[in-house]
Amino acid sequence: MTKLILVRHGESEANREDRFSGQIDVALQERGIQQAQKTACYILEHYSVDKLYSSDLLRASQTGKIIADLLHVDMVTHQGLREINAGEWEGKKFTELIAEYAKDYSVWLNDIGNCICTNGESVKQLSKRFFATLSEIVEENNGKTVVVSTHATPIRCVQCALSGKPLELLREIPWVSNASVTEVCCENDNWTLIRVGYDAHLAELKTYPSANV
Prior knowledge:
This protein is of the alpha/beta class. The chain is about 40% helix and about 20% strand. It has a 6-stranded mixed beta sheet with strand order 3-2-4-1-5-6. The longest helix is centred in the middle third of the chain and has 18 residues, at about 125-140.
């Protein structure tokens, strides 16, 4: 059995400013660094980790490095673990998206599973990319425990699929908080959600996505 520990990155500058970051590179805020440190300590206490994989985007790789350093494991970055390519939306404030891309962004807010970011990636493309990358990781680490430092939308897609829902019902799946822990056990072709968005260890440091995302 292979165990995946999916960690959403800590609070970033874009999170703090209510911006759609997508694949632009934004750093962690100070609170995001503290969140990553808390999560690293939680993982160290509760899991025996063999390796860590991270999205190559800065906010995820910073989070991953904090965890990898404390756990004394290698970190490998992979573009397949990135957040959605949001096209023209990247870097814009959510209020700007609502005003400037009313039709396309309303799909994101109300029917996210069927959304295509304006001149960017669709949620279906993201889900396919992310699952393909996770499958590679599982195949390369059979029987091991692996941390994956990634982003909110990919984790939401995993929750949806492993909850037995089609991607078209992704809107029913809530976002996870920054630096939260989602655990997946993989045995052959059977993948099982063990816990989702665990963040009790963050206490007063918890942060959640804006209502406009």
